[in-house]
Design a protein that fits this description.
With 392 residues, the protein is mainly beta. The chain folds into two domains: 139 residues, Alpha-Beta Horseshoe (Leucine-rich repeat, LRR (right-handed beta-alpha superhelix)); 151 residues, no CATH class. The chain is built from three helices and 29 strands.
Length: 392
């Protein structure tokens, strides 16, 4: 039987639809002279005036496009949460954007200015493109956390700090250009991002241990930053290019990066820090330039790669000094303090001299075996966890 709806119900339903997009206007600041809003019957919300946007009396779900005039200085938390607009341009006058101001909306493109505060755009799952204007110096914790469709981010030259989890879980963000003034990359800043290669500017002085954890980064270029900080725990890192000008490798620089296969140390490196390559079990070959004079404790612990010296003279490695506990493995709890070979073929450990390699072993000063290339070729099978010092 065909249903008959009372006229009153139909009118009520129509009014509900009309009210969802009903025009409204009023103040959204502290006083009548401050921020004002106008929401048209087509769903266009315009914010005008000056000062802080402190309230949002409009129906947020009825906003289908958004315009914010220059002069607004801040946006309250959750102000535009749940809107239906697809793009927004935040004027330079806006100095702060509050917690979850654009949380979980339909945004696909955003141009932002000044300060991006905690979780301002968290879970804006449709956002694909973000441009941050010049003047912004810091991205706060979780600023773009869980933007699973974010594909492109443009950072300003003024940016100095990317705080923890700023780009956590952004699997479609495959590339990023870090500005030359950047100083700090926080804990988990790019954790689980889709970035596959990254260039760390020399201005960076701090990279948190898990900044690039679980990301897709396989290739990294890094320079002077490596003297004072680590590679950020890039767990899938396979290849590292260390730029010229680096004089030391910081402690723990590549610690436990178990997929790391290739590292080229440039001429000029003098010191390899404590545990710098600790646990890099896939490292294939490591070429030590002549400039290296000190390798600190556990720097190469767990490394089974061949270690090469670049000099072609007989005393190519005579200035290499190894810190205590350089190598650690089953049966190798001892230390190797100093190993050199002088022009006469005399082996040295610390201040002790040995006429032959076998004498040196007999002296029990060496717990970790080091082989010249001639000696290594005579071995049918290297001992477990053998550390080879081979000549080019």
């Amino acid at each position: 039987m065909k249903k008959i709806y009372p006229i009153s119900i139909l009118i009520f339903s129509s009014l509900m639809f009309f009210n969802a997009k009903a025009a409204s206007e009023g103040k959204c600041g502290e006083t009548d002279e401050d921020c004002h809003y106008n929401l048209s019957d087509t769903g266009h919300l315009k914010i005008t005036g000056s000062g802080a946007l402190t309230s949002y009396p409009w129906n947020r779900s009825a906003v289908y496009s958004l315009e914010i005039d220059d002069g607004i200085t801040s946006i309250a938390q959750a102000a535009f949460r749940g809107g239906q607009y697809t793009e927004v341009d935040i004027p330079n006058s806006v100095e702060s954007i509050g917690f979850q101001a654009f949380y979980s909306n339909t945004l696909t493109e955003a141009t932002l200015g000044k300060i991006i505060e905690t979780q301002a755009f968290r879970d804006a799952i449709n956002l694909k493109t973000v441009t941050i204007k010049e003047g912004v110096t810091s991205l706060a914790e979780s600023a773009f956390n869980a933007m699973v469709n974010l594909e492109k981010i443009t950072l300003p030259d003024t940016l100095e700090t990317i705080n923890q989890k700023a780009f956590w879980n952004t699997p479609k963000l495959e590339s990023i250009e870090l500005p030359e003034n950047l100083k700090t990359i926080g804990f988990g800043a790019f954790y689980s991002s889709g970035i596959n290669q990254i260039d760390i500017p020399d201005s960076v002085t701090s990279i948190a241990a898990t900044a690039f954890g679980n990301s897709d980064i396989t290739t990294m270029s890094i320079g002077k930053s490596l003297e004072v900080t680590t590679a950020g725990g890039a767990t899938n890192l396979e290849s590292v290019i260390i730029r010229d000008g680096v004089t030391k490798i910081a402690p723990d620089a590549f610690r436990n990066l178990k997929n790391l296969e290739t590292v080229v140390l440039p001429d000029g490196v003098e010191t390899i820090g404590n545990s710098a390559f600790f646990g890099c079990t896939k490292l294939k070959d490591l070429f030590i330039p002549d400039s290296v004079t000190f390798i600190d404790g556990f720097a190469l612990a767990g490394v089974t790669a061949n270690i090469y010296c670049n000099d072609t003279s007989k005393d190519r490695c005579k200035n290499l000094v190894y810190g205590t506990g350089m190598v650690q493995g089953t049966g190798f709890a001892g230390t190797l303090n100093l190993y050199t070979v002088d022009n006469n073929g005399i082996y040295h450990i610390g201040n002790k001299k040995f006429a032959s390699y076998s004498d040196m072993l007999a002296g029990k000063q060496l717990r970790k075996r080091i082989y010249t290339v001639d000696e290594a070729t005579k071995l049918s099978k290297p001992a477990g966890n053998t550390f080879r010092l081979r000549y080019k």
